[in-house]
């Protein structure tokens, strides 16, 4: 059975449990990632004779396993890592940053032995074999490393999450620098503050050719992470240097800075005291009296100027910086005037995206080509496109795609994007680049209309805020509201509140939209079906995500659909990430083969850290079976639906009977169904029958006889239902197991494409139409309720209630007046 990404990620994250408590996530990441790295290169070298890492005898992961439980485990691992680094100069100061004998972090004596042994045990799992990827284009190991980096950054807290740039932001930057147009391996990509290297790798993934990779990172441990990350992604020749980029730039040619074709960067925000060994008149020409000198208390422009100086004359770059760089004054104002010609674009991002800070940031897109002839800056304000993800915000698939599409089109979009001339920037705004000055937000503010609160009616301003619905359903507005009222600017609801949802759903235009939506969905399925049915062993799955995503966006972005095309794209991409990509990698590896298996209990560990094999689980029903490519429920529904319905009905009846039984036991436990009544013995079918006979013979209390008879019937019904369930389970299990054995590849393919992929996507996409109906209904109801009770009506109601209270008080002898 192939490794699934989700299962791999869960297994790797377990390794962190062995270290939590003793140290911060920014520290224990070093131990986990080094262990992962050694496991990977050990497995890889056994299957690839040309593997670039030289592993001396005694330096394999198996040698780690041999140290488990030994007093010398920490020192032993350190020696292996040192020997491995000596044999591979590129690993010097990379895999030796974690000290496995450090008692201050790992515990003393037995605690250290146990912790390190348990950590080795996690990677010892038989399911973790990285000997080969599932497909030629699969980066399973690299993606796993990326997953761990994200989680480490999340847990590291405010001050220590700077080694990782969120993948979604990295993808935006990678696409907007134009690296997808690279033509030669001689072209270069550089990140002056590369952290763990994730931003570099995302940019490299967009390049059609293998460009040369360069980077520099100040932190020693994070530099090691970047080097490992490159090797795990197969980039063995990446030139990643360690040092302070501002004060000690490492990538130079003679006495000048080396220049690059493409640059991406996410420097630390607002670095204080950045100017150390560097001079105010910079040796490398990055800043000085002619350009301006960044304030010593804020290094944002120091990094930006370094990037501009490091770009070739036709180079492009993208840099993440806080919004303050767009409008701060004094020294930064002077620099902004001098470099504005290099700024081709600005993308404003949502707040709370980054792990080191919650403040909003922006991407500055730099381009030296035709800088002297450029007429202005293309601005995108994407601050509203995100989703909450735990304590942070995250760009959705649709947000990434929308930003990139708008950037590539370079066309104005109301309230979202606009090309702004340098003349407007200079003359009207004095080089202030703050985005709200140029891109006004959509009118979504809820205004409390005083006149409507006093005299009633629904303000047309509020109704017009729902324009996205009326433009797609022109007749719907007239069916919901009467707008030609005596008072200009106000309307009345045409139907009752309870009829709003029904009015929307039966509206002619809404029905047309529903039909149009289904037609586009059917057209999309017709277009991509041949591609999906043609999938076979040996495919390269990664390209299919883009092809299928582009296709669904193209179909749903037409005809002013109520369902936003980018929402449809988001639905597809989410399903791709959670299910379809794993399915395509399975198909790439074994073809249309449905392998049925029984998930086994997790391996357990002894106190000494030894892995204990759990007792093998045997299937008792179809619920104990699993198949990654073709879920069991789809086979059951396709071939054995009648038997499945019988089983489901029996299970439903059993639940009802057991509920009734529990209610009876609760109601009569102190009277008729207490064990004392049965001479202190357990209540059984035999004892109940005996009690029933005794009550009949003695003609005792009729209620008790009825209770006992009813209770006996319920127990009988429960037993009968259990027999039906047992028989159905046995029959269904045998049928399903047999069916999987005889399924042809064509049958598997038909069910996976039609029932699994299209079935799930159709359901999720149709939910979009349902949500639109619910959102519009909620908006109209909210508007109506906002002005439902006018102030005079509230005054009258209050007066009526006061009069009633006063009358009651008088009746009781109190004179309230």
From TrEMBL:
Residues 9-108 form the N6 adenine-specific DNA methyltransferase N-terminal domain. Gene3D superfamilies: 1.20.1260.30, Vaccinia Virus protein VP39 (3.40.50.150). Residues 137-443 form the DNA methylase adenine-specific domain. It catalyses: a 2'-deoxyadenosine in DNA + S-adenosyl-L-methionine = an N(6)-methyl-2'-deoxyadenosine in DNA + S-adenosyl-L-homocysteine + H(+). Its EC number is 2.1.1.72. Keywords: Coiled coil, Methyltransferase, Restriction system, S-adenosyl-L-methionine, Transferase. Transmembrane segments: none annotated. Residues 640-670 form a coiled coil. It comes from the Bacteria. GO terms for biological process: DNA restriction-modification system; methylation. Pfam families: HsdM_N, N6_Mtase. GO terms for molecular function: DNA binding; N-methyltransferase activity; site-specific DNA-methyltransferase (adenine-specific) activity. It is an enzyme of class 2 (transferase). Belongs to the N(4)/N(6)-methyltransferase family. This is site-specific DNA-methyltransferase (adenine-specific). It comes from Mucinivorans hirudinis.
């Amino acid at each position: 059975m192939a490794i699934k990404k989700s299962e791999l990620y869960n297994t790797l994250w377990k390794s962190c449990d062995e270290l939590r408590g003793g140290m911060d996530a920014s520290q224990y990441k070093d131990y986990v990632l080094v262990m992962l790295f050694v496991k990977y290169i050990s497995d890889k070298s056994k299957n690839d004779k040309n593997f670039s890492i030289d592993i001396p005898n005694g330096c394999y992961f198996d040698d780690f396993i041999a140290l488990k439980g030994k007093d010398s485990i920490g020192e032993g691992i350190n020696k292996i890592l040192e020997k491995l680094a000596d044999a591979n100069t590129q690993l010097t100061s990379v895999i030796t940053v974690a000290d496995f004998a450090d008692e201050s972090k790992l515990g003393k004596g037995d605690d250290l032995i146990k912790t390190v042994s348990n950590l080795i045990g996690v990677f010892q799992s038989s399911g973790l074999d990285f000997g080969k990827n599932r497909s030629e284009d699969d980066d399973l190991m690299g993606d796993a490393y990326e997953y761990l980096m994200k989680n480490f950054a999340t847990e590291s807290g405010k001050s220590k999450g700077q080694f990782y740039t969120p993948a979604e932001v990295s993808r935006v930057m990678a696409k907007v620098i134009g690296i997808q147009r690279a033509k030669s391996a001689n072209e270069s990509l550089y990140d002056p503050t590369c952290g763990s290297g994730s931003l570099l790798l995302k940019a490299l993934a967009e390049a059609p050719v293998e460009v040369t990779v360069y980077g520099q990172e100040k932190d020693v441990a994070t530099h090691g992470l970047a080097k490992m990350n490159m090797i795990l992604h197969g980039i063995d020749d990446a030139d990643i240097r360690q040092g302070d980029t501002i004060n000690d730039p490492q990538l130079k040619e003679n006495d000048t800075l080396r220049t690059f074709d493409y640059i991406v960067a996410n420097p630390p925000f607002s670095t204080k005291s950045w100017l150390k060994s560097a001079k105010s008149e910079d040796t490398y020409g990055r800043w000085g009296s002619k350009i301006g000198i960044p304030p010593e208390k804020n290094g944002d422009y120091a990094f930006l100027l370094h990037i501009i100086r490091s770009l070739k004359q036709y180079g492009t770059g993208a840099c993440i910086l806080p919004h303050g760089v767009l409008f701060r004054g004094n020294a930064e104002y002077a620099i902004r005037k001098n470099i504005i010609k290099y700024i081709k674009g600005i993308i404003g991002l949502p707040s709370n995206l980054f792990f080191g800070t919650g403040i909003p940031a922006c991407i500055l897109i730099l381009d030296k080509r035709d800088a002297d002839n450029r007429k202005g800056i293309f601005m995108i304000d994407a601050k509203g496109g995100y989703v909450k993800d735990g304590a942070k915000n995250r760009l959705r698939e649709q947000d990434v795609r929308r930003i990139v599409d708008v950037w590539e089109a370079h066309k104005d979009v109301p309230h979202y994007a606009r090309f702004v001339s340098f003349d407007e920037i200079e003359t009207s705004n004095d080089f202030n680049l703050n985005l709200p000055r140029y891109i006004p937000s959509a009118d979504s503010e809820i205004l409390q209309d005083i006149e409507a609160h006093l005299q009633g009616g629904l303000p047309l301003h509020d109704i017009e805020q729902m324009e996205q619905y009326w433009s797609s359903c022109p007749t719907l507005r007239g069916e919901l509201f009467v707008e030609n009222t005596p008072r200009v600017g106000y309307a009345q609801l045409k139907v009752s509140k309870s009829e709003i949802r029904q009015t929307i759903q039966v509206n002619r235009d809404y029905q047309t939209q529903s039909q149009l939506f289904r037609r586009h969905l059917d057209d999309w399925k017709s277009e991509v079906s041949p591609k999906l049915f043609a999938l076979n062993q040996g495919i390269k799955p990664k390209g299919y995500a883009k092809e299928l995503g582009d296709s669904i966006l193209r179909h749903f972005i037409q005809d002013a659909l109520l369902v936003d095309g980018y929402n449809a794209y988001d639905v597809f991409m989410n399903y791709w990430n959670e299910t379809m990509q794993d399915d395509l990698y399975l198909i790439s590896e074994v073809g249309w083969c449905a392998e049925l298996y029984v998930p086994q209990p997790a391996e357990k560990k002894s106190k000494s850290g030894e892995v204990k094999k759990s007792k093998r689980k045997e299937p008792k029903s179809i619920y104990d079976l699993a198949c990654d490519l073709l879920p069991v429920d789809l086979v059951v529904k396709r071939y054995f639906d009648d038997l499945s319905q019988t089983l489901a009905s029996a299970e439903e009846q059993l639940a009802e009977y057991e509920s009734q039984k529990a209610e009876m036991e609760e109601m009569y436990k102190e009277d008729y169904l207490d064990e004392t009544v049965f001479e202190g013995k357990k209540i059984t079918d035999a004892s109940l029958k005996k009690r029933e006979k005794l009550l009949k013979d003695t003609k005792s209390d009729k209620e008790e006889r009825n209770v006992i008879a009813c209770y006996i019937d319920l127990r009988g019904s429960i037993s009968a239902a259990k027999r039906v369930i047992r028989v159905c389970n046995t029959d269904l299990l045998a049928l399903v197991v047999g069916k999987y054995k005889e399924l042809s590849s064509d049958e598997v393919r038909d069910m996976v494409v039609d029932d699994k992929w299209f079935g799930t996507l159709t359901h999720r996409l149709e939910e979009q139409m349902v949500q639109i109906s619910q959102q519009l209904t909620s908006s109209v109801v909210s508007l109506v309720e906002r002005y439902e009770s006018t102030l005079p009506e509230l005054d009258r109601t209050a007066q009526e209630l006061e009069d009633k209270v006063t009358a009651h008080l008088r009746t009781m002898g109190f004179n309230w007046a």
